[in-house]
Amino acid sequence: MLSDTYGWEANAFVLLGDSGQPKAGFSFCRISDMLGERIVAMPFSDYCDPLVEDADSWRLLIDRLLPERLPINVRCLHNDLPLADERFDLTKQAKWHRLDLRPELDALWNAMHDSTHRAIRKSERAGLTVRIAESEHELRTFFEMHLKVRKYKYGLLAQPFSFFQNIWRQFVEAGHGFLLLAIHDEKIVAGDFFLDWKDTLYYKFNASVPDDLSLRPNDLLIWEAVQHAKQHGFAYLDFGLSDIDQQGLVRYKRKFGTEEKTISFLRHSPQAPPNRAEKELRELLGKLTNRFTDRMVPDLVTEKAGEDLYRLFT
Q1: End-to-end Cα separation, the chain, in angstroms
Q2: Choice between 279 and 121, residue whose per-residue pLDDT is larger
Q3: pLDDT of residue 108
Q4: Residues near 40 by Cβ (< 8 Å), separated by ≥ 6?
Q5: Which helix (H) or strand (E) holds 36?
Q6: What confidence score (pLDDT) does residue 266 get?
Q7: Distance CA 193, CA 50 (A)
Q8: H/E/C letters for each residue in 171-234?
Q9: pTM over 0.90
């Protein structure tokens, strides 16, 4: 999907044991653009831990990249070994939530906050229904909601529509994901995009129509996803990353009875601090984002700006 959308090549180093069996691994992309060259594991992922069980394995893998003298960005959740590597700096932290789906459905319902129960009942009384999207036409409707949320609520550019098309083709059409839609009076008012891998269902993207939020479609979508996941044998629902300053989003994910952990953003910076040109480019990128997400700018122009600029945010 990353290759189809941005042209990046995915790479991995694998450490083999004496019998030739893989015992550790590290995946990444090399990126080269106007902001310079860098190595990212993996671009636009909430986290991508190195698959290592001891410090020696971690060093054997990462030492293959360090001689390139490029910045290396890693996001760790389940593996703390890179955090102990003095060659990497902790640059940021974020919250992560996951729901254990193994208890019975009644137990999962009872573990949710009372406000969630009330929201779900309200949306059901209002006549909301939920179904899985069937076409890229419906995907486009979801994308337009997503673009507006990022633009008008957060002042951010959206990923290109081709990003979602490639997710659809690489995951949904392959049977490893689905777009869940909330419908009211034959109108799509909200949607959640889920991907799956092994025993986990991943909550990746949400979008909704602000004028219809009083119907509480988002709570209903999650409850429907929980039931779907139980029916299909998934053990976990991964709610993904939330920035620490997104307190509303953190509270929203907590109220479903999730566990909470911390994602650590690590960076290896072998070169001198950014020069004046690099700093000016990053400042310009921020200014362009502000310009293109201004309410006076047509949404189509904002969409085109995301197509041109979003790749630079990794």
Answers
A1: 15
A2: 121
A3: 98
A4: 28, 29, 31, 72, 73, 314
A5: strand 36-41
A6: 97
A7: 26
A8: HHCCCCEEEEEEEECCEEEEEEEEEEECCEEEEEEEEECHHHHHHCHHHHHHHHHHHHHHHCCC
A9: yes
